[in-house]
Amino acid sequence: MAKSTRRAFLGAAAATGAALSRSVCGAAEDRTLKMGVIGVGWYGMVDAKAALKVGAVQAAAICDVDGEHLEQNAAELEKLQGSRPKTFKRYQDLLEEDLDFVVIGTPPHWHALILLAALDKGLDVYCEKPVAYDVREGRAMVEAVNKSDRIVQIGFQRRQSRAFREVKEFIDAGKAGRIVQVDAQIHYRAGTKDPTPQDPPASFDWDLWCGPGPKIPYSPQVGHLNWRLEKTSGHGHLVDWGIHLIDSTRMTLGLGMPKEITAAGGLYYLKDKITTPDTLTVHFEFDRCPVVWRHRLWGAEEYNPEVNNGIFFFGDEATIFATDQKWVVIPKGKGKEHEEHDAKTDLGIEHMADFLEAVRTRRQPACPIEEGFRTTATVQLGMIAYQSGSVVRWDAQREQIPDNLAAAKLLKRLYREPWKHPYQG
After folding, report:
1. Based on CB atoms within 10 Å of each CB, which residue in 146, 166, 273, 324 is the most buried?
2. At 266, is the pLDDT very low, low, confident or very high (cuts 50, 70, 90)?
């Protein structure tokens, strides 16, 4: 059974590799790269399997604070690649192994410390988004990467989207006229689990999982996967999922960071189940145009489900709706038909392929740390505006929120002892 599974996987990998627009096979150095994966509960394994599909990669070691995750995923990787990776509970122990790069797939409140430790070991890093939990962590990470000679890719996979690249070309050619406003949204009905405090599973080291963040009571609703809607770890839907569309908007229009942010929303339906807003609108004022984010995590049925997840670019000559694999032009004038464009892309594999080629050739990847930081800080400022109930004016040059002490305090979170925040400014 193991051989059959591995044969099928490698066959799929070959087919996928042949279709990649950028393959690491043509790189100057084609030796097998040894990969470590830190956090294999979900997306760390998605990234690991993408790396194996790209090829010339071996998962040499994996790390997780849940022993069940380690056992299950070590067994799965052994089936896929024919060798069993070493397993570790502490990322510090994994980093002592002979590795070429690591994938960071933990919740974001761990990203900063792990990335800095990996850089100290001379390793390249593929780090999932958001870059960090708070803005100051992100800045410390940028400075550390810039001082190193390491390749760091941030997991904004939609930077590989052919749809968004084509939209950018359409807008840059002036075919939509002047872009006056952008609306981005992801509405969906969030599933919730039991929020009642209880003992964690025996295999799960909850204290270590909480790490530098506050140690909150465990419940299934704040544990595996569901931590995204918990304020102390995932920071909510905008920071967890909406961040992809904000990054795609920045990339498409060539935006920097917003200069003013306002937010309104609250917990209207999922109160006492989650700790971040189930309804939120954030207005980001960029130099080029405003970008408005909306989400709603509840509801029965949508009037038009096709636009639940995507971006509207409102131009004075045309409106464009774009999502991961398709974009639509709504021309100016009554009675004109919509122009639909399919643009299929295997985003995860393309983004990993881009990273692995960068590792081999030492060029910069599609989403370097500075770009990942700017997008992450943008959505974090949105949540700061919401949490402080104030207008946030961002001084991008100084990276400060002037004349707003309540908001400025939220740029950096105090760490739980014995961990120390990496930003010392």
Report:
1. 324
2. very high
Query: In terms of domains, do 202 and 338 share one?
Result: yes
Structural domain includes residue 421: no
pLDDT tops 70 at residue 231: yes
Do 94 and 223 lie in a common domain?
Answer: no
Name the amino acid, one letter, at 106. T
Q: What is the mean pLDDT of residues 315-320?
A: 98
What span, in angstroms and rounded, lies between the C-alpha atoms of 420 and 425? 13
Residue 424 within any structural domain of the chain:
no
Q: Please provide the DSSP assignment of 79-92 as one string.
A: HHHSSPPEEESSHH
Token pair of 364, please?
A: 């910069």
Which pLDDT belongs to residue 4? 45
CATH number at residue 47: 3.40.50.720
Q: Is residue 356, in this structure, part of any structural domain at all?
A: yes
Q: What are phi and psi of 200, to 5 degrees?
A: -70, 160
213 and 356 share a domain? no
Asked if 357 and 391 sit in the same domain, the reply is: no
Residue 154 φ/ψ region, left for φ over 0, alpha for ψ in the -120 to 50 degree band, beta for the rest: beta
Q: Is the domain of 50 the same as that of 125?
A: yes
Q: Are residues 184 and 276 in the same domain?
A: yes
* pLDDT tens per residue across span 93-120: 999 999 999 999 999 999 999 999 999 9
Short-list 235, 381, 229, 242, CA closest to 311: 242
Domain extent, residue 268, equals 160-345+375-411
What is the residue-averaged pLDDT of the chain? Answer: 94
Is the same domain home to 94 and 196? no
Place of tokens 């390749």: 151
CA atoms within 13 A on the CB side of 316: 4
Q: What is the pLDDT of residue 12?
A: 52
pLDDT tens sequence across 157-216: 999 999 999 999 999 999 999 999 999 999 999 999 999 999 999 999 999 999 999 999
On whether both 145 and 229 belong to a single domain, the answer is: no
Q: Please state, in angstroms and rounded to a whole number, the distance separating the CA atoms of residues 270 and 278.
A: 7
- Take residue 290 and report the two structure tokens written for it: 């405003």
Q: How many domains does the chain contain in total?
A: 2
Tell me what pLDDT residue 22 has: 39
Residue 420 is assigned to a structural domain of this protein: no
Q: Which of 349, 314, 309 is nearest to 19 (CA)?
A: 349
Q: Which two tokens stand for residue 311?
A: 């971006």
The Cα diameter of the chain in Å comes to 65
Closest residue by Cα to residue 189 from 237, 239, 230: 237
